[in-house]
């Protein structure tokens, strides 16, 4: 292994360690001192100089200036940082924040660490185009890492803080003392009843629309309009669905009374595009030969759909519906004005009475955090909600992946 | 006969769109008639009957832009990773994981954001309260990520293999091909992903409501991410359960604006996407 | 293919049965005898109604009381529109509202003093007493730093209630402020308490029942907001907590209101931190 590669590897390792330290310091609010930061940057900068000089000595081409120049930039940053005051006070500009110097120091360590590790691929591959390629790939890996990191932080926090609260009593008892004691039984039942009802309403509508789009009319103005409508519906904010549910279902259909049915109807509108899209995708996955064969045997179009197209696409259709229900189970905004009451709603007893639902119960508990002793219950409710919603989603996704490679 | 039945069912979606617009408009009309363009002013004071929702509009746009600044570089990076360099086995794991990220209910994001992230930023930046635009932007960025990733990934996957092969055959590296061929070819799909992500950020309610502080004032100076504010969605969610009379009509006006903004975004994104499919359909 | 298709349909059948089963399961507890009482409105009164309803529901099998929040105005409006049986309010009904429900009946279920709370940090550093004028100046933006009222050199973080709430209304009325410069608007008393509690330099106002812990109340004009001071009228900020009904309460509604006014109900009122009516 040549000296050039050794220096590059050293640069990479050191940069990654320094970036990691900086990131850790930001996350834990550790107070990085000026000399820690300057020292780290000095190591990076010296390594860059070494790499540049080595390249200049052995190759004598202008590529080496990259590393020399970059090393100087790092050095300048380290030197100029001494002028950062211990607290950067933004209040003279009416911005109410004070950024401490150690935040800047940690930030420099992260940014320069990532940049240097990215650049270290250049000398390693002798400034050929592979260097740029692997450097870029390295950055892409970092971006996928930072995409998944929040997922793990969220799930980790909810599990560790919510675990203790999930007991048999929590699952089976009524809400007592505004959620301080007891459990969330009515809310669980309410959520389950509501999404079941939603499924019953949305399934025929969504699948019917999908059959029309996929089987009867594949082109033309009507299809274009319907497809655009489905897309708009899918993008519509959930709070707008809530407003619509309130204005139409609650005020006009049910005379101003919140109810289980009004909530389920609103959620059906919300899930309709999801069900339609995945059902259409499932129907389209059935090969055209099957249809042609059936039609050639003299079956009518409807018979073909019923006997040939629907059966194999059924798992796909159902998983789409279940995915939609997973979304519906976690939504708060659409049911806020249409279906839920905080307490006393009890277990759902009629289609025309308000209910309690888990997401709204979590909101109510959050409101009481700090006033009543409900934080433990709130985390447990969040965990339970997460288990239900992600459980539904994982089941649906697994079934879908299993059936996807059938044709 | 059967055909007409299914056509009837299919028109439901179109009908619902019209219904949403009509019923929102019926409820909003008294406010529009009474206040007219005053609704777009920036003064909100219930006791003086001033209902200017400009601060909420500004807040919605500001938060969405901030969320995009967080989400777009990460999202496109992650999508490029997934579609171009991830080995098939990794991809099979990561894609569903990212879908799960999209499945986490927004109230849970809001709860976490308000309790953990808000406190974290408060401690780090010495702010005065835990509510801020910054926290909302970070959380919304997180929430917009999955949709951007999966749509951008689909767009890049849709680029025909011939194009890439041609580039590779000419001696370009895989990365050069990705940068100079795949991404430019998929650019309309990627922009449509970004627009949908922005739509999601603008339409997000519960998380923003718990994190942003719901003050009806435009931040001063206008880029002040440490201040509190309000968005159209949070305004509706907070005030709806508490109000009656003309305020309800004002809130429905806000709802219409939201609906129209997001619908326009959906249509643009839809057009961009169709363009991508049409571009490649002949070559596949 | 044929048998496979059949299993698919069975799957669908089972799925539908499951759904219908769930609905029946929830439907079978339906009881025609069940009388229903809905209570809605002010979030200050909300804890009273909730705690009372919980206990009342436990003891009465054929009556169910459902409670939901909203503002005082929302509660009174629900009486006007007939969407609830009882409207709870933390302010008096306005003449303009009485016009819409001429035979409204007011039942006072508790008395509350409006407390000014500050963050514990500020309280510990010397802000334990504010004059009425100082509170007014803080909320209208003339005082922006705690050192102007004897505290640390830190900016004041002002928390207020949403302008649709009764507490907001009473506060603005009692303080005679026209417009505030709040930094955070919160929906409910508990939200204000949490916001003030999580910040280090905040001020807010809540019902007396919400004082304590990380959010101590300051004296107003040197008077502490105790039960005795509120009742004697020494403490300047006080109000009644009311139940409004359209016409004299009858049947199940009357039974519930009677329970709230009963010794046990008033015990709950006091336990939550408000003052019982007959004290």
Characteristic key phrases:
heterotrimer; B: about 280 residues; mainly alpha; MetI-like fold; two-stranded antiparallel ribbon; 11 helices; 2 strands; C: about 280 residues; alpha/beta; D-Maltodextrin-Binding Protein, domain 2; 2 domains; eight-stranded mixed sheet; two-stranded parallel sheet; 10 strands; globular
Short description:
The complex is a heterotrimer of chains A (about 400), B (about 280) and C (about 280). Chain B has about 280 residues and is mainly alpha-helical.
Helix-residue proportion of chain B = over 70%
The CATH topology of the largest domain in chain A is what?
A: MetI-like fold
CATH architectural designation of the largest domain in chain A: Orthogonal Bundle
Q: Could you give the count of β-strands of chain A?
A: 4
Task: Give the full name of the CATH homologous superfamily of the largest domain in chain A.
Answer: MetI-like
- In total, the number of domains of chain B comes to 1
Low-confidence region ranges of chain A: none
Output the structural class of chain A: mainly alpha
C-alpha Rg of chain B (nearest Å): 22 Å
Any idea what the CATH superfamily of chain B is called?
Answer: MetI-like
Quaternary state reads: heterotrimer
The number of distinct helices of chain B, counting runs of at least 4 residues, comes to 11
Number of strands of chain B: 2
Q: Strand fraction band of chain A?
A: under 5%
* Uncertain stretches of chain B: none
CATH class of chain B: Mainly Alpha
- Number of DSSP helices of chain A? 16
The backbone outline of chain B, from C-alpha atoms, is globular
Describe this structure in words.
The complex is a heterotrimer of chains A (407), B (284) and C (279). With 407 residues, chain A is an all-alpha fold. Chain A has 2 domains: 3-160; 168-406, MetI-like (MetI-like fold), CATH 1.10.3720. Chain A has helices at 3-28, 34-59, 65-80, 101-119, 121-124, 129-162, 168-172, 185-216, 221-235, 238-253, 260-284, 288-296, 301-330, 333-336, 358-368, 375-404; strands at residues 87-89, 98-100, 175-176, 181-182. Chain A has a two-stranded antiparallel sheet. Chain A has a two-stranded antiparallel ribbon with strand order 3-4. Chain A is extended. The model of chain A has no long low-confidence stretch (mean pLDDT 87). Chain B is 76% helix and 1% strand. Chain B has a two-stranded antiparallel sheet. Chain B is globular and about 70 Å long. Chain C has 279 residues and is of the alpha/beta class. In chain C, strands 2-1-3-10-4-8-6-7 form an 8-stranded mixed sheet, sandwiched between helices. The mean pLDDT of chain C is 84. The interface between A and B is large, with 98 and 96 residues.
């Amino acid at each position: 292994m040549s000296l050039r590669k050794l220096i590059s590897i050293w640069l990479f390792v050191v940069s990654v360690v320094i970036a990691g330290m900086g990131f850790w310091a930001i996350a834990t609010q550790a107070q990085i001192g000026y000399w820690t930061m300057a020292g780290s940057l000095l190591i990076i900068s010296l390594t860059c100089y070494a790499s540049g000089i080595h390249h200049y000595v052995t190759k004598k081409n202008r590529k080496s200036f990259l590393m020399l120049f970059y090393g100087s930039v790092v050095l300048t940053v380290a030197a100029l940082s001494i002028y950062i005051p211990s607290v950067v006070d933004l209040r003279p500009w009416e911005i109410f924040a004070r950024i401490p110097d150690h935040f800047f120091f940690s930030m420099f360590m992260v940014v320069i660490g990532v940049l240097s590790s990215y650049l270290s691929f250049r000398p390693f591959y002798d400034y050929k185009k592979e260097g740029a390629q692997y450097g870029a790939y390295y950055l892409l890996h970092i971006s996928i890492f930072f995409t998944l990191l929040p997922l793990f932080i969220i799930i980790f926090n909810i599990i560790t803080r919510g675990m203790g609260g999930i007991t048999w009593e929590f699952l089976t008892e009524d809400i007592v003392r505004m959620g301080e004691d007891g459990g969330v039984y009515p809310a669980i039942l309410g959520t389950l009843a509501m999404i079941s009802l939603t499924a019953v309403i949305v399934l025929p509508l969504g699948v019917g629309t999908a059959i029309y789009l996929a089987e009867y009319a594949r082109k033309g103005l009507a299809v274009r309009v319907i497809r655009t409508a489905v897309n708009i519906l899918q993008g519509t904010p959930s709070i707008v669905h809530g407003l619509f549910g309130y204005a139409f279902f609650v005020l006009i259909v049910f005379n101003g009374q919140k109810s289980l049915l009004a909530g389920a109807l609103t959620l059906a509108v919300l899930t309709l595009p999801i069900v339609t899209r995945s059902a259409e995708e499932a129907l389209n996955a059935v090969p055209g030969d099957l249809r042609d064969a059936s039609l050639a045997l003299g079956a009518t179009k409807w018979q073909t759909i019923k006997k040939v197209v629907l059966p194999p696409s059924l798992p796909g259709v159902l998983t789409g519906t279940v995915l939609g229900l997973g979304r519906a189970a976690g939504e708060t905004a659409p049911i806020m004005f249409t279906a839920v009451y905080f307490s006393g709603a009890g277990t759902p007893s009629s289609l025309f009475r308000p209910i309690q639902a888990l997401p709204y119960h979590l909101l109510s508990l959050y409101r009481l955090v700090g006033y009543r002793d409900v934080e433990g219950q709130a985390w447990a409710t969040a965990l339970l909600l997460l288990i239900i919603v992600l459980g539904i989603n994982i089941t649906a996704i697994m079934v879908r992946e299993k059936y996807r490679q059938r044709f | 006969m059967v055909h007409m039945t299914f056509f009837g069912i299919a028109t439901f979606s179109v009908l619902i769109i019209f219904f949403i617009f009509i019923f929102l408009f019926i409820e909003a009309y008294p406010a529009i008639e009474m206040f007219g363009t005053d609704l777009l002013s920036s003064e909100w004071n219930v006791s003086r009957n001033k209902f200017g929702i400009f601060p909420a509009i500004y807040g919605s746009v500001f938060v969405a832009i901030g969320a995009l600044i967080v989400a777009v570089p990460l999202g496109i990076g992650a999508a490029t990773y997934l579609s171009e360099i991830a080995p098939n086995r990794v991809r099979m794991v990561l894609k569903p994981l990212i879908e799960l990220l999209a499945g986490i209910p927004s109230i849970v994001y809001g709860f976490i954001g308000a309790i953990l992230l808000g406190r974290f930023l408060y401690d780090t930046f010495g702010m005065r309260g835990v509510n801020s635009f910054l926290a909302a932007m970070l959380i919304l960025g997180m929430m917009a990520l999955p949709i951007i990733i999966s749509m951008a990934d689909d767009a890049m996957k849709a680029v025909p293999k011939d194009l890439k092969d041609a580039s590779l055959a000419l001696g370009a590296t895989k990365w050069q091909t990705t940068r100079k061929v795949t991404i430019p070819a998929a650019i309309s799909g990627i922009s449509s992903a970004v627009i949908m992500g922005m739509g999601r950020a603008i339409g997000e309610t519960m998380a923003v409501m718990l994190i942003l502080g719901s003050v009806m004032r435009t931040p001063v100076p206008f880029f002040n991410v440490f201040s509190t504010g309000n968005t159209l969605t949070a305004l509706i969610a907070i005030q709806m359960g508490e109000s009656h009379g003309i305020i309800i009509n004002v809130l429905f006006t806000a709802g219409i604006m939201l609906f129209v903004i997001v619908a326009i975004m959906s249509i643009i994104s839809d057009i961009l996407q169709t363009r991508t499919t049409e571009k490649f359909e002949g070559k596949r | 293919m044929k048998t496979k298709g059949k299993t698919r349909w069975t799957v669908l059948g089972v799925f539908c049965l499951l759904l219908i089963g769930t609905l029946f399961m929830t439907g079978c507890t339906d009881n025609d005898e069940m009388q229903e009482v809905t209570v809605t409105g002010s979030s200050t009164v909300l804890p009273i109604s909730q705690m009372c309803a919980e206990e009342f529901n436990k003891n009465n099998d054929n009556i169910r009381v459902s409670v939901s929040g909203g503002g005082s105005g929302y509660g009174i409006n629900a009486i006007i529109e007939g969407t609830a049986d009882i409207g709870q309010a933390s302010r008096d009904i306005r003449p303009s509202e009485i016009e819409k429900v001429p035979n409204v009946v007011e039942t006072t279920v508790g008395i509350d003093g409006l407390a000014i709370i500050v963050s514990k940090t500020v309280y510990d550093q010397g802000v334990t007493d504010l004059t009425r004028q100082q509170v007014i100046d803080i909320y209208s933006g003339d005082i922006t730093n705690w050192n102007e009222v004897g505290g640390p050199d830190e900016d004041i973080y002002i928390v207020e209630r949403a302008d649709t709430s009764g507490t907001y209304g009473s506060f603005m009325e009692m303080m005679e402020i026209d417009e505030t410069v709040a930094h955070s608007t919160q929906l409910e008393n508990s939200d204000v308490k949490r916001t003030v509690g999580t910040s280090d330099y905040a001020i807010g106002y809540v019902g007396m029942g919400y004082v304590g812990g990380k959010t101590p109340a300051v004296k107003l004009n040197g008077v502490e907001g105790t039960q005795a001071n509120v009742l004697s009228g020494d403490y300047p900020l006080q109000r009644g907590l009311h139940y409004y009904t359209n016409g004299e309460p009858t049947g199940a509604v009357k039974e519930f209101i009677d329970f709230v006014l009963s010794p046990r109900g008033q015990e709950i009122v006091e336990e939550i931190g408000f003052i019982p009516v007959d004290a």
